[in-house]
Amino acid sequence: TTSADDDNSDEKIATDAELGAQRAKLEAVLEKPPSDQNNSEDEFGQKTLQYIKNDSRLFDSSRLKKLSSVQRTFEIWGFVFQLLWKRFLVEKAWSYKRSEKDGKVIKEAAKKARLVALATWLRDRLLSLGPTFIKIGQQFSTRVDVLAPELIQELEKLQDQVPPFGREEAVATVEQQLGGSLSDKFTSFNPQPIAAASLGQVHKATLKDGRNVVVKVQRPGLRELFTVDLKNIRLCALILQKLDPKTDGAARDWVAIYDECSAVLYEEIDYRKEGANADAFRKNFKKYDWVKVPEIYWEYSSEKVLTMEYAPGIKINNVEQLDKQGIDKTRLARLSVESYLLQTLKFGLFHADPHPGNIAVSPTNGGTLIYYDFGMMGRLQPGVREGLLKLFYSIYERKPEAALEGLIQMGVLVPTGNDLTPIRRTAKFFLDSFYERLETQEDLRETDANYSDEFKAAKTK
Q1: Digit-coded pLDDT (tens) for 162-173
Q2: How many angstroms separate the CA atoms of 255 and 234, rounded?
Q3: Do residues 359 and 385 lie in contact, with contact meaning Cβ atoms separated by under 8 Å?
Q4: Confidence at residue 334, expressed as pLDDT on a 0 to 100 scale
Q5: 83 and 155 in contact (C-beta within 8 Å)?
Q6: Closest CA to 61 of 154, 161, 139, 162
Q7: Which residues are catalytic?
Q8: Could you tell me if 265 and 109 are in contact, meaning their C-beta atoms sit under 8 angstroms apart?
């Protein structure tokens, strides 16, 4: 018995020693944030800590895991009704104090303050609800034509200021997906992410051969969460389908929109597809030195982990930093437009999630566009692409007949008879109106020194 106990004791000591050695190797790989960390990375870290300090419930993945389907459903619909009620009150004079009104008219400052409060609440609630709803917030953060500026300003923070998930979860996911310990794959791995988004976060690391890389790690439990969330969102789509009067003449199919978005969402959580998209996008732009797409390292990638070249840059809407680097913003705007024309009209493969968190600028070559996150891509069939190209040229050349041909080729316009005269007349009216507006804007730009500021303010409003 004593001998057996001694054997067990020796075995336990050996096991403890092995665990200690593994822990030491892991700690050696998990580096502290480097002192030369760039400003944007440090800024992200500070904002992350501020989120956690302000409200530990924000994006609490452990809390989401504990919720049953019924609890999650109640949480979602509670949020929907709260949002509708709060937005309803913004426009109702009786909900304001006397000091916030001139008679029965709401003071502009009071309404703005109410919208700012609503925007902050909305951002925090989307964060609390987790990945699905953060993704929705990101999509609406670019819709200046739909939402008030106060809402846009807060939702923009969801583009690249999402709190990360835990270090232990990230390490466990990488090791499980790549089939080995971090020390087997990397010389160093920074446990502090340099960026976090709705579906994953990015860690800086160094491969054994010395190459600097970033490792994109997927948030745990996304597929299970999507299953519950999307059922509720589909119900919202069905309700909208019945309630939307479509008085503007648009034939919106909310259920079809939901079906397409949900399919894309499931595709986004397979990082192998994202890597393949990045390779295809890079191949398309190989002749253009003003577009950069990070290389994918497939031997260190899987369904939930994507390792790619470290390609830092300035966020494309960070005007102050662009000016400091002496980057020509007019040229940058032209290249951005040219890039999307090439994507849609020439290649038929385009980046479908181009918010500022996914596009950066490198100072090289006077300003190089860096594209990130290829999980959401759009594809145009040859017939649609050719029709779209014909439509673009017809607008440029002011040819309404050619514009109609392009629309028919794209399948947007389906003739119901042989006489297209009324439609042709309408197309000519729109083209003439469009060019009249362009000419007016050109005249104002030459005569009004404040035109740019006034035009942007009006556009945003």
Answers
A1: 888 888 999 999
A2: 7
A3: no
A4: 95
A5: no
A6: 162
A7: 353
A8: no
Residue 246, helix vs strand vs coil: coil
Whether pLDDT at 29 is above 70: no
Give yes or no for residue 333 having a pLDDT over 90. yes
Percent of the chain with pLDDT over 90: 42
Burial of 41 (0-12, 13-18, 19+ CB in 10 A): buried
Q: Is residue 170 within 8 Å of 191, Cβ to Cβ? A: yes
Cβ–Cβ under 8 Å, residues 284 and 198? no
- What DSSP string runs through 256-271? HHHHHHHHHHHHHT-H
Q: CA angle, 215 as apex, 213 and 216 as ends, to 5°?
A: 140
Question: Does residue 36 or residue 84 have the better pLDDT?
Answer: 84
Backbone angles phi, psi at 147, to 5 degrees: -105, 155
Region 278-293 average pLDDT: 96
H-type helices in 104-253, by residue range?
108-129, 131-140, 149-155, 167-178, 182-185, 222-243
Burial class (CB in 10 A: 0-12, 13-18, 19+), 381: exposed
Please say whether the beta carbons of 152 and 317 come within 8 A: no
CB of 67 closer than 8 Å to CB of 75: yes
Q: What confidence tier does 262 reach under pLDDT thresholds 50, 70, 90?
A: confident
- Would you state the structure tokens that stand for residue 353, as one six-digit string? 């999630």
Q: What is the pLDDT of residues 179-219, one digit of tens each?
A: 999 999 999 999 889 888 888 999 999 999 999 999 999 99
The bridge status of strand 195-196 relative to strand 200-207 is antiparallel
